């Protein structure tokens, strides 16, 4: 892998796999265990076949989150939800290009609200959608499963896509001096996180691989141990 910059690796536990009955304590515990971001999956039972959290839940967990809240909008349309989640305390907001009629406008709304902005690409979404708006992106999130449900297996063809987006990000950084994070979500576990990092990812969403175990710190430490071997 030809990285222009070797960024810090970030681990973003997805609260989709947390215990909803004590969500605040779950967030505090996973941050104490070493989480860099809290990944907040928003599903509307329209764009994806599942229903999860709204802005009020984001607002409720904000006092427990001493790290950035990374809101992933799987909703259609997106613009009203952008403003609602920004007001609720989101730090990073990403959305799917298929869910916006005007991608540039939606990204501009996120920026205007004071949040970092990103696009999410499904396994079958081509990467050329990034080209015209890359100047507005702070993060690109690649789905390594089809969105909608936690606990799915990693789609191996995503590795090639990660490498392609990494090359695009590096070229942009070389020309503009600004780094864009490359996040991957879906089936990330201790035994594949190094392979995903080697392909070019620097930020890793993990749900059941962390929250499915009693000791969150142990799981996150094991992931960091794997990442420490990436050159």
CATH C-level: Alpha Beta
CATH architecture: Alpha-Beta Barrel
Number of strands: 8
Total domains, how many?
1
Could you say what the CATH topology is called? TIM Barrel
Broad shape: globular
Structural class: alpha/beta
Low-confidence stretches: none
Rg:
16 Å
CATH superfamily annotation: Aldolase class I
How would you sum up the major sheet? 8 strands, parallel
- Give, in spatial order, the strands making up the sheet with the most strands: 1-8-7-6-5-4-3-2
Based on the model shown, name its key terms.
single chain; 231 residues; alpha/beta; TIM Barrel; 8-stranded parallel sheet; 8 helices; 8 strands; 17% strand; globular
Describe it.
The chain is of the alpha/beta class and 231 residues long. It has a single domain, classed as Alpha-Beta Barrel (TIM Barrel), CATH 3.20.20.70. It is 34% helix and 17% strand. Strands 1-8-7-6-5-4-3-2 form an eight-stranded parallel sheet. α4 (103-112) links the parallel β4 (92-95) and β5. α2 (55-61) packs parallel to α3. The longest helix has 19 residues, at 158-176. The protein is globular, with a radius of gyration of 16 Å. It starts with 9 loop residues before the first strand and ends with a helix. The model has no long low-confidence stretch (mean pLDDT 94).
């Amino acid at each position: 892998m030809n990285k222009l910059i070797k960024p810090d690796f970030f681990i973003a536990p997805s609260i989709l796999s947390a215990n909803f009955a004590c969500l605040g304590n779950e967030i505090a515990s996973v941050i104490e265990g070493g989480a860099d971001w809290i990944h907040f999956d928003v599903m509307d039972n329209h764009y994806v076949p599942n229903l999860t959290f709204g802005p009020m839940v984001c607002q409720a967990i904000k006092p427990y989150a001493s790290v950035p809240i990374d809101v992933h909008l799987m909703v259609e349309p997106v613009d009203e939800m952008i403003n609602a989640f920004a007001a609720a305390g989101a730090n990073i907001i990403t959305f799917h290009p298929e869910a916006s009629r005007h991608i540039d406008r939606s990204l501009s709304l996120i920026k205007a609200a004071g949040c970092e902005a990103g696009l999410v690409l499904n396994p079958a979404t081509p990467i050329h959608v990034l080209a015209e708006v890359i100047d507005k992106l702070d993060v690109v999130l690649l789905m390594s499963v089809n969105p909608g449900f936690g606990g799915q297996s990693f789609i191996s063809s995503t590795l090639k896509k990660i490498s392609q987006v990494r090359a695009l990000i590096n070229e942009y950084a070389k020309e503009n001096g600004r780094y864009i994070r490359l996040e991957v979500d879906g089936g990330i576990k201790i035994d594949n996180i190094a392979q995903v990092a080697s392909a070019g990812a620097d930020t890793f969403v993990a749900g059941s691989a962390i929250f499915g175990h009693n000791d969150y710190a142990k799981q996150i430490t094991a992931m960091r141990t794997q990442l420490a071997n990436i050159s």
